[in-house]
Design goal:
The chain starts with 5 loop residues before the first helix and ends with a helix. Helix 1 crosses helix 4 and helix 8 (212-224) packs across helix 9. With 249 residues, it is an alpha+beta fold. The protein contains 9 helices and 8 strands. The strands form 2 sheets. The protein has a 4-stranded antiparallel sheet. A 4-stranded mixed sheet has the order 2-4-8-7. The chain has helices spanning 6-16, 32-37, 44-51, 64-76, 93-102, 142-145, 174-177, 212-224, 231-245, and strands at 79-80, 85-92, 109-112, 126-133, 138-141, 156-159, 165-169, 189-195.
């Protein structure tokens, strides 16, 4: 793989939580929670993450130009690794259904070459996924692209949004049936995911709704407080998310 630029490397480190310092934006080690939510329609993903105790950081939405630049740098860091790999992910059932319906990854998708952990206490209803990556599948193998990888034990391979996928059910082994979610329940499904050819992504940028990012911050605050967001804020924020994605391709 070609070496990443400094901007791409910084975006990748930021996404995986390999951060330092105390700047409100750049020190957030869990920014992926919000970054991934931006790719899902509606606010059900944000609502689910808040219910899991995940932080919806409003600072990420504070500077649209900064956010767009970060996402562009991250999107441009994906390229074929030249190596076929089998990687794993334990996905939330709710998010898997969106992936299955779309026939592709919806957001940035973290996978692991080291198999599944025995328990996932932060997720209710899980699907075990095995991705059969080809040498041409665009990805970011963290240990290969980052010279000093702070989370090397996670053996992470990141997949991009919009990656076409076909799915088939895979009979679970006894060991896989023993993997449990937050309620102690076994996996809902086990599947094999086979990537297709990444499409050429391009879009005419849509105007960003003026109050969309501010509305998103209010939505985050309401969800974090366990309250119901204002309907007008939800509409403005979700319209803003849709427009935002047209600026990063």
């Amino acid at each position: 793989m070609n070496a990443l630029t400094d901007a791409q490397r910084r975006a990748v480190r930021y996404y995986i939580g390999d951060v330092e310092g105390d700047a409100p934006f750049w020190s957030n080690g869990k920014a992926y929670v919000v970054l991934n939510s931006l790719f899902f329609p509606g606010i059900e993903t944000e609502r689910a993450r808040a219910a899991e105790g995940k932080r919806l950081d409003p600072e990420i939405l504070a500077d649209e130009a900064r956010l767009i630049g970060l996402l562009r740098d991250l999107m441009s860091a994906f390229r074929p690794s030249g190596i076929a790999r089998e990687v794993c992910r334990v996905e939330r059932h709710r998010d898997f259904l969106q992936m299955e319906t779309a026939g592709r990854t919806v957001s940035f998708t973290s996978t692991c070459q080291s198999g599944f952990l025995p328990q996932y206490g932060d997720r209710v209803g899980v699907v075990l996924m095995r991705f059969m990556l080809t040498a041409e599948t665009p990805c970011i193998p963290m240990a290969d692209v980052l010279p000093h990888y702070a989370k090397a034990d996670e053996d992470e391979i990141l997949l991009p949004p919009y990656l076409p996928l076909t799915f088939r059910d895979d009979p679970p082994s006894p060991a896989e049936l023993a993997i449990t979610d937050a309620n102690g329940d076994p996996p809902v499904r086990c599947v094999i995911a086979e990537p297709g050819t990444m499409p050429r992504l391009q879009s005419d940028p849509l105007p960003l709704p003026k109050d969309g990012a501010a509305a998103g911050r209010r939505v985050f605050a309401a969800l974090t407080a366990g309250e119901t967001p204002d309907d007008a804020d939800v509409l403005a924020y979700t319209s803003w998310k849709t427009a935002l994605l047209t600026h990063i391709l």
